[in-house]
Amino acid sequence: MNTKLQVLVIDDDAVVGRSFDRVLSDKGYQVSTALSGEEAMETIRETDFDVVFTDIKMPGMDGLEVAERIKARCPWTPVVVITGYGTPDNEAQASVLGVSGFVHKPLTPEIIESVTLKAVKEAEVILEAAEPCETQEVIAKTVSKAGVHSKAGLIAKNVGLFFAAPFVALAYVIALPFVGFYMFAKLGREAYVKKHLSK
Question: How far is the C-alpha of 163 from the C-alpha of 82, rounded, in Å?
């Protein structure tokens, strides 16, 4: 049985969630939505998501705090920040948190699909890097996807997380310099373009 990849979209604008659902539902994804960070954290306690998208500017918990909490709880889960209020500071902070992407509204169907695919592939690379100690985690995720919420399943998941955490952290440490270099290069290019356009 093919299980659809689980996507969570967190945005106080319900139209954004519906847009993701329209684009991704026929591409092998099951899209869930949350209208706030608080609602999202409740949802994440019940379901293991393959990708999480979060708006940055929301009432209550903002997108960066949501990303930080998700990464603390599920470090292997890719988080993509979406916003219409992007700033270099926000992008730099999001990169430090280990988010998989930072995209600006308005989002086209092509952007939604490509960013989702990129985030899924990055998560696969991280999990493969942790593969030697990943057996219990795979079992736990399989149990969760099947909808089995037994005590044994939770124990297996916790044991898997215990052994996988150092390898996931190592993967992020290795990737961080590359992300930092990319951000500096991107910001430098944007500053260069703005400078020349203003002439």
Answer: 32
Helix (H) or strand (E) segment spanning residue 177: helix 151-197
CATH number at residue 107: 3.40.50.2300
Q: What is the pLDDT along the chain (199 residues), one digit of tens a residue?
A: 357 899 999 999 999 999 999 999 988 899 999 999 999 999 999 888 999 999 988 888 988 899 999 988 888 889 999 887 666 777 777 677 778 888 888 889 999 999 999 988 888 877 776 544 344 444 445 444 444 444 444 455 555 655 555 665 565 556 556 656 666 666 667 766 666 666 5
Question: pTM above the 0.90 mark?
Answer: no
For residue 4, give the DSSP letter. P
For the chain, the domain total comes to 1
- Residue 137, classified by CB atoms within 10 Å of its CB into exposed (0-12), middle (13-18) or buried (19+), is buried
Cβ 44 vs Cβ 9: under 8 Å: no
Cite the DSSP H helix spans in 58-134: 63-73, 88-97, 109-129
